[in-house]
Amino acid sequence: MEAIDLGKALCVVTGASRGFGHSLALHLSTLLKSGSMLVVIARSEGKLRELQAEIRSSGVTEETLQIKNVAADLGKKEGLQEVVRVLTETETSSFNHMLLINNAASLGDISKFVVNLTELEEVDQYFSFNFSSALCLTASLLKHFVKRPGLKRTIVNISSLCALKPFKSWSLYCSSKAARNMLFQVLAEENPDIRVLNYAPGPLDTEMQVAARSQSGDSELRETCARLHESGQLISCSQSTSKLVHLLLKDQFKSGCHIDFYDV
Question: Is the separation of the CB atoms in 237 and 207 below 8 Å?
């Protein structure tokens, strides 16, 4: 039987200020039992305040759910340290579920082909934000929320078809998504007690899609993305959020697996 809520949880959503992360935070806030905490992370403090106000306006009260905004750049050491500090100062004993959604990501410079990526600093900065931060944040949170009876730990990586299939001029994005997929597969193998899911939300109707159809170096890819938009085939964030939430509540996926929006 599918659960009706996610328990009394510490729920962490990265990249929560817009798009899919914003939609996830809104939806998840209604599925957390009283006494839960929602930690939303993004670069923009203003956008996080707007998100918190939106959650409160939906009827989720402070007595029911504590919300913590953490404005930080996960691609920088100081930003990651601030997020980890906030999370590790949180008392864990009252929660029966720890849920981390690794959503934060960027396309990078999708105008460049592989032969144009000659600057080590550019590549390192990209992977710091898109791969290393997800690894270090996940590891830090799992060290803080140690295995104990009655505690469920769930890690979700927001993945992509790009983790499985190469797209010309998207080498950085495809590579980081593939690396993250493998990272979380390894985590699932190492820790059978942790529920791990790689979820690909499908072609979402977001600002990232606007960039994809206007900035991609490969003309065929630009045209493909434009056709998806023009033919109404893009997926709304709320549609994809609903499918991910269904997977989490049903909780029957194989830990470490990759599930696409179209598979659900």
Answer: no
Residue-wise pLDDT tens digits, 1-60: 899 999 999 999 999 999 999 999 999 999 999 999 999 999 999 999 999 999 999 999
CA dist 54 and 2 (Å) reads: 27
- Quick check: pTM over 0.90? yes
Instruction: Pick the closest to residue 157 from 178, 184, 176 (CA basis).
Output: 184
Report the C-alpha gap between 130 and 89 in whole angstroms. Answer: 25
Round to whole Å and give the CA distance between 22 and 37: 16
Distance CA 110, CA 71 (A): 26
- The candidate with the shortest Cα–Cα distance to 66, out of 99, 34, 18, is 34
pLDDT for 161 equals 98
